[in-house]
Amino acid sequence: MITKCTIGGGVIAPQAKYFAQAPLPFVGQKRMFLQQFRSVLNQMIADNGDGWTIVDAFGGSGLLSYAAKQLKPKARVIYNDFDGYAERLKHIDDINRLRQQLSDLLTGCPRQKRLDIAMRHKIIDAIES
């Protein structure tokens, strides 16, 4: 049976493969918690989750919401996008371009050292442009 998962206002068609990390990495991602989360869901909620509501109170990528909907497709899953993650995904191409520009600028700069004032201005200019 194929069901659809509604997360953050969009519809995600289920796939055979589970995602184990968010498309944009960030501090606080729950990927290391995912196996335990799946285990607890299966212990607490029988079968396909019919009649259950699962609330993902974490703000961010919706990784736990996605996993919950994959494991319990009949459950209602509520996703918290407090951090505006869905909005950031819309701008992923711009973010990747900026990351590349900053990487190019910082080539040859030593890590764990303060940047000189000229380099700081170049970085600020790249971010603001």
Protein model, in words:
InterPro entries: SAM-dependent_MTases_sf. This is DNA methyltransferase. With 129 residues, the protein is α+β, with helices and mostly antiparallel strands. It folds into two domains: 5-85, no CATH class; 91-128. Helices cover 41% and strands 14% of the residues. The chain contains five helices and four strands. It has helices at residues 34-44, 63-71, 85-90, 92-106, 117-128, and strands spanning 5-7, 10-12, 53-59, 76-80. A two-stranded antiparallel sheet has the order 1-2. A two-stranded parallel ribbon has the order 3-4. Helix 1 (34-44) packs parallel to helix 2 and helix 4 packs antiparallel against helix 5. The chain is elongated, with a radius of gyration of 19 Å. The chain starts with a strand and ends with a helix. The model is unreliable at 1-15 (pLDDT under 50).
What can be said about this structure in brief?
With 129 residues, this protein is an alpha+beta fold. The chain has helices at 34-44, 63-71, 85-90, 92-106, 117-128, and strands at residues 5-7, 10-12, 53-59, 76-80. It contains 5 helices and 4 strands.
Give the helices and strands, then pairings.
Layout: E1 5-7, E2 10-12, H1 34-44, E3 53-59, H2 63-71, E4 76-80, H3 85-90, H4 92-106, H5 117-128
Parallel strand pairs: 3-4
Antiparallel strand pairs: 1-2
Helix pairs in contact: 1-2, 4-5
